[in-house]
Amino acid sequence: MTRTDATRVLVIGGGIAGAATALGLHKAGHDVTVFEAHPDTAEDIGAFLTLASNGMRALAQLDATDAVTAIGFPLTSLRLLDSQGTEVAHAPLGEATDPALRYRCVRRGELNAALQGEAARRGIPFHHGARLESVTDGPDGITARFADGTSATGDLLVGADGLNSTVRRLITPGVRPTYAGQRVFYGYSATAPGADPTGTITMVRGSGAAVGYAVSPTGETYWFARVGGDPLPAGAPAQRSAALREQLLPLLRSDSTPAAGLVAAADDAITVTNASELPLGATWRSGRILLIGDAAHAASPATGQGASMALEDAVVLAKALRDLPDPESAFAVYERHRRPRVEYNITVSGGISRGSRTPSRPAPVKTPMAPDEALIRQLVWDTTLSAEPPEKY
Ligand SMILES: Cc1cc2nc3c(=O)[nH]c(=O)nc-3n(C[C@H](O)[C@H](O)[C@H](O)COP(=O)(O)OP(=O)(O)OC[C@H]3O[C@@H](n4cnc5c(N)ncnc54)[C@H](O)[C@@H]3O)c2cc1C
Q1: Which residue among 87, 164, 285, 305 has the highest number of C-beta atoms inside a 10 angstrom radius?
Q2: Atom of ligand 1 nearest to the CA of 17
Q3: Is the CB of 14 inside a 6 Å radius of any atom of ligand 1?
Q4: What is the pLDDT of residues 284-313, one digit of tens each?
Q5: pTM for this one?
Q6: Any ligand 1 atom below 6 A from CB of 113
């Protein structure tokens, strides 16, 4: 592989990692095209998620703050309730004083649409309805073939196709997501518990479920509940909201917290999913191909960092391909920077989901997710990415 001024990069998957990576690579002057399996901008897919301050910092480096602060709502403090509803902690959340870096609660579909819209505004080609099936490496580059019979050839291919990545299956077929010990329910309720101002996310340590909720500026409550036990069976049909409500309520009713009331009042958009994670040490790259985002390092959602990690990936990959002399060393340096941090997140988040904070293997980095100087330097667009990462992020 040799470097040309405008490397042709095929990005597979136009979700959070793929769309953000397209913004970064385009900013770095590369010729990037995104291929997304979903036929439209997928506005109604999935529930909500929380972007943390580190994710918002990455977005700012991609000049995409305005696109994302136009949706969702900010969160500036965190409350913790015990199972009796007693407030045991209330503290500022992340970089609460900087409007661009505040935590943000967004519906996943709206976030995808905002990032994809920003890519379109910058003239980045974005093909919807393009589901990758196979990849071949040839003398003219790497060719991706799609289910609709089309194909595309580039110098590099970035697999940003999520938890069940086809790109990952092609380069490392043995690596599969595993169940991280919890099912996660999501819903929205038109009513809000009286004491909760907007801007606060409340976490409830319930006796039967860990619940989190936040009230939007329009008075709607976004909530989730993490519940231990067996995984949802593979391929099982989606359950109706009423059935999911009945599964959850008995786990919440014995506590004196707002959780049962919120679930009882939920509208008909309750969803449930397994918390899944990828094993540590999985292969991320093969020749001209690199995996990023959930395709490389999906973590259980307990720390709420998956989307923010994907946004950090986008910035670091764009800087690596900008600053290193050739794609091979760029991919290697990218991996050296990213692996310790994302695997720390997999370990901590999985530990929380399984009900033990003990990491399954010694965590490679001991830092919390709070920003430190090294992370800020890693993300700042105008700083050259060092070939050797610092000892910790
Ligand atoms: C229950 C739950 C709660 C979560 N809560 C949070 C949270 O609060 N905060 C947070 O930061 N993170 C959260 N996450 C994690 C977060 O959603 C993921 O880390 C994030 O979506 C990863 O982005 P991604 O772009 O890598 O993958 P995805 O968002 O999954 O995007 C992958 C894209 O690739 C496309 N695709 C798939 N296969 C193909 C193919 N063959 N060809 C072309 N395109 C393809 C898909 O259609 C999709 O658009 C949560 C996850 C779960 C499951």
Answers
A1: 305
A2: 25
A3: yes
A4: 999 999 999 999 999 999 999 999 999 999
A5: 0.94
A6: no
